Protein: Phosphoribosylformylglycinamidine synthase subunit PurS
Organism: Desulforamulus ruminis
Amino acid sequence: MYQAKIYVTLRKSVLDPQGSVVRKSLYALGWKNVPEVRIGRYMVVDLEVADRSEAENQVKDMCDKLLVNPVIEDYTFELVEV
């Protein structure tokens, strides 16, 4: 069995208004050394497969078909055997 940890973020070319608000708030609280904040999503998906290659293929397929909007988002993932 594998566990996929999936990180989804907006592409650099897409404005991130939520990240801008957080950055401004950090600045107001005294953290003036934070030039940028980007907000994203984190998902954990358990897969009952025996083969690491099959787990990777399934996670890529899930991301490409449902979990990620490829027009405005990028993703990375890591697999952990559990």
The chain has one domain: 2-81. The longest strand covers residues 2-10. The mean pLDDT is 97. Helices lie at 17-28, 52-67.
